[in-house]
Amino acid sequence: MSKNGYLQASRLLLTFAFFFLSNASVLVYVLWITPEIVSFEFVLWLLVLVPCFWSMRSENLWNDFFTVLEKNWFIYPFLLFAGISVYWSVAWQVSLFRWLMLLFTIIAGGYIGLRNDLRKIVELLSVFGVYILFFSILLVIFAPKLGVMNYYIIQGAWKGIFWHKNHMGLIATFLNTLYLINVIYYWASKRKTALFWGALYLFSLVFVIQSDSVAAYMTTILLHGLVLVGMFLIKFGSYIRKSHWVMFTLVSLLGLVLVLFNLEFIFGIFGRNTSLTGRIPMWSYLFNTYFFDRPYLGYGFNAFWYIVTHRIALMYAAGYPDQIVIADNGFIDILINTGYVGFALFLLFYFGAWWSSIKTALKSVDIVGLFPLILMAYVLIANITWSLLFENEGFMMLVMISVLFSIAHKNNEANPLG
Q1: 3-class DSSP state for residue 150?
Q2: Cα dist. 150→123, 144, 156, 159 in Å?
Q3: Which residue of 183, 271, 387, 417 is surrounded by the most CB atoms within 10 Å?
Q4: Over the stretch 258-303, which tens digit does the pLDDT of each residue have?
Q5: Alpha-carbon dihedral sign for residues 390, 394, 396, 399
Q6: Which residue would you say has higher pLDDT here, 227 or 241?
Q7: Helix (H) or strand (E) holding 149
Q8: Which residues pair with 154 in a beta bridge?
Q9: Which of 119, 95, 120, 15 is nearest to 342 (CA)?
Q10: Side-chain-side CA neighbours of residue 117 (13 Å)
């Protein structure tokens, strides 16, 4: 293998190492509240970051990194506030560790984004997803005690390599959307690779269904709708007039109203109710009992759920047989941990990411250009009934940062003078 081949292989391994590490704490069991596992994870991150730093230095990427980071300045305020929260955190060691992990994630995401365009990021994530599904199906078939939920009120739902079926379901939804993007992209260019991705699309859809996660079902349906609308706009956007947009908006609002007034019926289709499987009473107790004691600064970055008494109290409030370890809502988790101030700063970052994604989508000529917007929609929908915003894993944050860096880096190359 040539020197260039070794470099390409090392970059690929480094990228997949970051993907794995950002998922590591949610594999099989609830590991992110175990101090020994947390320490081991920290050491692994340091070991992987060393070659990352060396690679960025040898390829003179640090200047590009800080230039692109400056363009994504809306990351700074929340990052700074999360670090400062260590001083009033109810578990300062946890907040410090999680802040360092956030910093590491930004560096790793920056590295991936600088090295790859959107098409390559979609490809890398898709291939990583193959490993997730492959090892998950092995556990489901050969080690069902690990790969299948056999737990009080949850029986038979696939959780694969993850700790909970909802996590598996939503990750499978994300992968399913990636494979759909690949099918559309390669089908448009009449390449047989579309058949391969089509098979993986169906395979990932099996995981979505078998996870028995209503959140995964609803997210999958809504993302498919978004992809359909996006493709329609790419193909016929030049023919759309203002009156069409008004009509589309009115129809969308009418549809939303119909859904809101028929939630009981809709949830009943999936064998659920409007309490969201105990989430609503749990959230009510969380706010009334804990949040308003520290409404402005919160309990410290990622610190709240490390207090055992909090987990037990929420368990009884939700009527759940075991301790609650996340709020089952990514936005509520950030709010409870960082308060109004931190949440406002997070929204600055979050809406900044939305703005970058929308601008990219408006200029897109194919489905890949829509990926950042699809990603942001996924992050929004999936986090309504689950926590995928750096509470117990960093994967989605890593993907968001990678995409933001890739977009800004491409724009910087196209317009180097700013």
Answers
A1: strand
A2: 34, 9, 6, 10
A3: 387
A4: 776 676 767 666 667 666 777 888 899 999 999 999 999 999 999 9
A5: positive
A6: 227
A7: strand 148-151
A8: 151
A9: 95
A10: 9
Q: Is 273 left (phi over 0), alpha (psi -120 to 50) or beta?
A: beta
Sign of the alpha-carbon torsion through 313, 316, 319, 321: positive
Which residues does residue 158 pair with via DSSP β-bridges, in sequence order?
148
For residue 42, name the pLDDT band (cuts at 50, 70, 90). Answer: confident
The CA distances from residue 216 to 8, 167, 256, 369, in Å, are 35, 9, 19, 24
Site of tokens 């109004």 = 340
pLDDT at 275: 66
Residue 33 CB burial class (10 angstroms; 0-12, 13-18, ≥19):
middle
CB 209 within 8 Å of CB 158:
no
Instruction: Give the residue from 404, 415, 410, 394 showing the smallest Cα distance to 358.
Output: 404
> Binning pLDDT at 50, 70 and 90, where does residue 32 land?
low
Task: Please give the structure tokens belonging to residue 403.
Answer: 């995409």
Q: Extract the tokens encoding 34.
A: 């175990």
Whether residue 291 contacts residue 335, with contact meaning beta carbons closer than 8 Å, is answered with yes
- What's the rounded mean pLDDT across residues 371-397? 92
Mean of the per-residue pLDDT values for the chain? 89
* Residue carrying structure tokens 């250009």: 369
